[in-house]
Design a protein that fits this description.
four-stranded antiparallel beta sheet, 2 domains
């Protein structure tokens, strides 16, 4: 009976540590909860209890196993065995608890496999923390560490009690092991427990609080891609889904003639975190990019372009390979799958193009360099190739420096060429050498100010491009890698506003007909390879993930962690796969159809990803 009391005491203490973790999460994000804090805390504790118990058993099972082994050997283990497991559990709880609220604040999700993409680059991760609320984090971390230390001492004290070894002792520990295993998997049924067991609300933040942070992190750490995807995204037979998907894309045989030059140079400027909500022209909320707005008005711009994902490496794949972001993974970190991607670089290399990539940061970050090499990009210039005096940003070189290096090198490029310049000044921590006087000094000022700086650098760069000999034969595409939060009120975190981005075509090779034109067609950034190849009367086979410019039923679909959004001319929707929450905006008769089409698109994408 004493062993059972020990078991319950340890379980209670670990439950207490997880409740502290939940409280930390909710207090950190209290501003987003308003006056519902107590209600959300109570409901998330209740709804997440089963998942909490499962996670407790992951922590307790090794301790019970050690005690069971003691009963078999009739010999006590050294205390450090128990201390090791207790400390390991509490350190993991502490680390995940500290990181989860800030991850959610910035990304809209807790720890997931996207974090694992970046964890192999600790320096870049550290730089990104420039936007963290450090004061609040440090204070909370101190309180949490003291609390967990006290809990750890109590757990060790309970376990460290004298025990008499007997057959009853061994049988009790064996029974407790079995009970732990059953509770760990969430019962005796065929289906094991998952995050969905904690889902109780239509509000994403409420559900995030309910889901045990350590369980969630362990899930993403130990599940491979096949386990992550399995059949959970399947809504129709594969053949039927493929046919439905083809019907969505349709056939667009009309030539969108951007240039009269048969083989123009292509320069793609990928703008870090340039959200349409920072543009007065595109959204009307903020005046953060006046130069971009002017350039758009003078050239060809798409007023309804959406990014495919929300991270730079996903945007790079979407822009150069026309391949959509996936809901639970990033294809760029899987060498075999990434190698199977089509690409603008691959296609143009067959036509004699030389490929160039310029970036002020580290091109090895998130496997970008490997992807570029596979895509036929011959020359990659990043911060390792730059003058050290230029590395004034925590990420590397600010936009002005990398634009300058490109202009210097481009004088010697053999035409035709394909070049991609990836900016970085508008990436957190937004440490730009500029301070705007007219922007409101609110929470979002550092980000908005960095957009202003990046916008001015871009304008200077394009003016210098016009003076180059290669300019008259060059198409220039300006596009964001992804959107960004900018503090809009009454907007969903994963709503279409976050994914709305600029897409502008300019350059000396742009047909005069298109200058000063705006296209209101809904498109995704994945349209870029097809758009350029078709304009040069080249095959765009393999890039069929986006409706064309003249499609009668255009759409853009984006994916975030375990969910998707879909935008059409008259309607849009947001679908969370985990909670099954569905938000629809637009003409009511579109609601069922747009959700079904979005699920079909997602299924076909996942199946294609798995087959690569």
């Amino acid at each position: 009976m004493n062993r059972i009391f020990v078991f319950f005491k340890v379980v209670f203490l670990f439950l207490l540590s997880f409740e502290l973790s939940r409280l930390y999460f909710l207090i950190y994000l209290k501003d987003q909860l308003g006056d519902r804090f107590i209600n959300v805390w109570a409901m998330s504790t209740y709804s997440g209890f089963a998942l909490d118990i499962s996670t407790v058993m992951y922590c307790v099972a090794p301790l019970i196993l050690l005690m069971f082994a003691e009963g078999i050997a009739r010999k006590r283990w050294p205390n450090w065995f128990y201390l090791f497991f207790i400390l390991l559990d509490l350190v993991c709880i502490f680390a995940i608890t500290i990181s989860d609220p800030e991850l959610y604040r910035q990304w809209g999700s807790k720890f997931n496999n996207q974090v694992l993409v970046y964890i192999s680059h600790p320096k870049e991760m550290a730089i990104s923390t420039g936007a963290v609320h450090w004061g609040k984090t440090v204070v909370f971390a101190i309180v949490l560490s003291i609390s967990l230390f006290i809990i750890g001492r109590l757990i060790f004290k309970v376990i460290n009690k004298e025990r008499t070894y007997s057959i009853q002792y061994t049988m009790t520990e064996l029974i407790l092991l079995v009970v732990s295993f059953v509770l760990l998997r969430g019962g005796t049924g065929v289906t094991t427990i998952s995050q969905s067991s904690a889902i109780y609300s239509e509000n994403r933040l409420h559900n995030a609080a309910s889901i045990n942070s350590l369980w969630n992190a362990l899930y993403y750490i130990f599940n491979d891609v096949e386990s992550l995807y399995d059949d959970k995204f399947k809504v129709a037979e594969s053949s039927q889904a493929t046919q439905d998907f083809r019907n969505q894309i349709g056939e667009d045989t009309a030539l969108f003639d951007l240039t009269s030059t048969s083989r123009p140079n292509i320069l793609i400027v990928t703008l870090e975190s340039f959200t349409a909500s920072g543009s007065l022209l595109l959204e009307g909320y903020n005046d953060c990019m006046p130069n971009l707005d002017r350039i758009a008005r003078e050239n060809l711009y798409f007023s309804q372009c959406y990014s495919s994902g929300d991270r730079t490496e996903k945007g790079l794949v979407s822009i150069l390979s026309g391949y959509p972001a996936q809901p639970l993974s990033s294809i760029i970190v899987f060498p075999d799958k990434m190698s199977a991607l089509p690409g603008l670089g691959k296609e143009l290399k067959k036509e004699g193009y030389k490929g160039y990539f310029y970036y002020g940061g580290d091109a090895d970050f998130a496997s970008m360099k490997a992807y570029l090499i596979v895509q036929g990009i011959d020359n990659i210039v990043d911060k390792k190739s730059l003058d050290k005096s230029w590395l004034t940003s925590k990420w590397g070189a600010h936009d002005g420096f990398i634009y300058s290096r490109f202009l210097s090198d481009a004088r010697y490029f053999k035409e035709p060429f394909l070049a991609n310049v990836l900016s970085l000044s508008s990436h957190e921590p937004y440490d730009v050498p500029y301070s705007s006087s007219d922007l409101e000094k609110d929470e979002w000022y550092p980000y908005k100010n960095s957009l202003r700086y990046a916008d001015s650098c871009l304008a200077d760069f394009l003016e210098q491009c016009k003076k180059q000999a290669w300019y008259k034969n060059t198409l220039i595409v300006l596009v964001a890698d992804h959107g960004h939060e900018i503090g809009l009120k009454d907007k969903l975190f994963f709503g279409k506003e976050k994914y709305h981005i600029p897409l502008i075509v300019t350059g000396g090779a742009l047909q005069e007909f298109w200058r000063g034109k705006m296209l209101n067609q809904v498109v995704s950034q994945t349209i870029i390879p097809s758009l350029l190849l078709k304009s040069m009367e080249m095959s765009d086979e393999g890039f069929k993930w986006q409706t064309g410019v003249y499609n009668k039923h255009p759409f853009a679909q984006y994916h975030y962690n375990n969910g998707f959004g879909r935008v059409e001319n008259s309607s849009s929707c947001l679908k969370d796969n985990l909670s099954d929450q569905y938000n629809f905006f637009g003409i009511s008769s579109d609601s069922l159809r747009i959700q079904k089409d979005g699920k079909i698109f997602q299924q076909v994408l996942v199946e294609d990803f798995m087959k690569k």
